[in-house]
Design brief:
CATH class: Alpha Beta
CATH architecture: Roll
Strand order of the largest sheet: 1-2-4-5-6-3
Radius of gyration: 15 Å
Structural class: alpha+beta
Largest sheet: 6 strands, antiparallel
Strand content: 35-45%
CATH topology: Thiol Ester Dehydrase, Chain A
CATH superfamily: Hotdog Thioesterase
Number of strands: 6
Number of helices: 2
Number of domains: 1
Helix content: 10-25%
Order of helices and strands: HEEHEEEE
Length: 146
Amino acid sequence: MDTQLEAEDILKLLPHRYPFMLVDRIIEHMPEENRIVGLKNLTFNETFFQGHFPGNPVMPGVLQLEAMAQVAGVMLNLRAGNEGKIAYFMSINNAKFRRMVKPGDQLRIEIEGVRLRSRMAVVKGCAFVGEELASEAELSFGYGAD
């Protein structure tokens, strides 16, 4: 089943709120394939662009990783048996940054499950601007009670 989620639906699944909510929409969710795709629309009004960097605004790489983690969190929190749990970001491996992400870009975040267990999960995340890879990483999560 291919499911789309709007911001209101995402807010029910993640504890994040403005200014730290970095997912605007889920455009694909394929639980049988352990795959999800989310979007983050970037405007010049993002708070981080004001200081990173004046005159040359660039989305910090660490926030690209956080956006990946939030999209993964939606997927993990939707898995059967995870009702009432929160997937907590635990580690990052093999993070690579390939291009700058600027105001006006739309970040398309693709997450695929690598190892999904009852108490932990590992996913592969890739963030694209158009068809161009912007960043990628392997992210690990542990589950906690709500």
